Amino acid sequence: MINGDAIQTAFVADFLRYSLALLALLMIATSVAEDYEFRQFERLLTMPLARWQYIAAQALVIACLCMLLTLPAALLISLYGNAAIGLYWGSALWLELFLLGILGLLAILSLEKIPQAVIFSLAIYLLAKFSNLISLMLTESVKFSDGSVASRVIEFIFGAILYVIPGSKAFAENDVFFAHYDLIAMLGSQIASVSIYALFLLAVCLIDFYRKEFNL
Amino acid sequence: MRRGERPMLLLPRPLLLGFLLLFAFQLLHHHAGRAQMAASYQALDKPLSAGVYNGLALGSEQLLGYLLTIRLQLHDNQAGQHFRYSLIDYDVLLDWLELVSTMNPGGEYATLLASRIYSQTGDADRLRQILAFIERRFDENPQLHWRRLAEASLLAKHKLHDLERALQMAEKIARQPASVQMPQWARDFRFLLLAELNEFESAIAIIQALLQSKAVADPDEKRFLEEKLTDFQQKLLDSQQKAIN
């Protein structure tokens, strides 16, 4: 009944997930913050480059960085578990880190300071992770408070916030270590969620970046 | 120093259009995902007959009964998702609770789940079903299930706001013979609820009978009954004076 191997693999996988998420976020925030600090934007804008090209380049850098970070994790999980699970975890983790990276890019472009950007990105990340639990707690609190207006308003506001944060399907599923799931279907669903949300975030990045005025 | 920002309307039109399109896409995707999550809830299967499970238990009926109850308790947690109790079909749930009670007649687990977990539903009809289940278990074994019926009586009073139903269950507890051992407070529910229903005369009669019968030996309990007797007599007097005025 106690599946020690699965618990161990799942623990290692989650440890790697959160460590790499923090590392990726710090690396992305630092790199863009340096662009602000050394006035790289002003220099870039004197070149024949559109602003969207800078964002596209950053997205590619984030994709490559996430790939570099997830490859060892996928290999390690393959050694702990099996190749299929390792491949799934590597791909799902890449998608999760990429999404977090884009979120970090938006945060650093808007807030321009590393601590604020990292805290904001982590807050959104954790909020998205706990969204199901918070949503359930709020629904139950409406029942316990006999449907009080305050509880309903809070539930409504949180329901609205959920529309603009990533859904639970955008993250790697740790349950795969304990039971048999259709890994391809899970990955497909995650790809759809991450693609839509990442494109949405990139659009917000572009809006924010195009609005900024740099003193040339 | 805060960086200057251009007004939104000065941004390239395709960019604004693309943003609005992607925003709408994200909203639609989230909305569709929520509907899909509700649809992905695996409903509780109807249980087979108790005979089948007893046969499968190979002589360990009680153990299988416990395992089935644990499985039932974990039903709202599927693939890492917590589902709302409102999604559970209470008719099927009660079939399972009846089944595990049959397999494990000496156990309290099923009635405990009913009174503490599944009673948290906001639906009055479902709560009534749960209360009826607890009452049936109490009828079978009052000694084992008097606590659950006392809880059920409180649920009827505070969650259903149905004092008549609460009183009905409290009377059932109070009428148990002395051979059914339970603390006096469980039997006291009856007169407390009678007083809430403004049936002060009946409540006073019950307390007086209790005090005269010498069934109550504990001095604290006796003092509590005497205080309640005085309180109810005063309230009865007040209500009678109000009626005269």
- Largest sheet properties of chain A: none
Question: Which blocks of ≥5 consecutive residues of chain B have pLDDT under 50?
Answer: none
**Going across the major beta sheet of chain B, what is the strand order?**
1-2
The total domain count of chain A is 1
Order of helices and strands of chain B: HHHEEHHHHHHHH
Number of helices of chain B: 11
H/E element order of chain A: HHHHHHHH
Using the alpha-carbon principal axes, give the shape of chain A: globular
- Measured as a percent range, the helix fraction of chain B is 55-70%
Can you characterise this structure?
The complex is a heterodimer of chains A (216) and B (245). Chain A has 216 residues and is mostly helical. In chain A, 80% of the residues lie in helices and 0% in strands. Chain A is built from 8 helices and no strands. The mean pLDDT of chain A is 88. Chain B has 245 residues and is mostly helical. Chain B has a domain at 47-78 and 86-169. Chain B has helices at 13-39, 50-56, 61-73, 90-103, 109-117, 124-140, 142-158, 163-174, 184-196, 200-213, 219-244, and strands at residues 77-78, 81-82. Chain B has a two-stranded antiparallel sheet. In chain B, helix 3 runs antiparallel to helix 4 and helix 10 (200-213) packs antiparallel against helix 11. Chain B is flat. The A-B interface holds A 52, 112, 132-133, 136, 139-140, 143, 162-164, 167-169, 173-175, 179, 181, 192-193, 196-197, 199-200, 203-204, 206-207, 210-214 and B 3-8, 11-12, 15-16, 18-19, 22-23, 25-27, 29-31, 33, 79-82, 84, 120, 122.
Write the layout of secondary structure elements.
The complex is a heterodimer of chains A (216) and B (245).
Chain A: H1 4-37, H2 40-45, H3 51-80, H4 83-111, H5 114-129, H6 131-144, H7 149-162, H8 183-211
Helix pairs in contact in A: 1-3, 1-4, 1-5, 3-4, 3-8, 4-5, 4-8, 6-7
Chain B: H1 13-39, H2 50-56, H3 61-73, E1 77-78, E2 81-82, H4 90-103, H5 109-117, H6 124-140, H7 142-158, H8 163-174, H9 184-196, H10 200-213, H11 219-244
Antiparallel strand pairs in B: 1-2
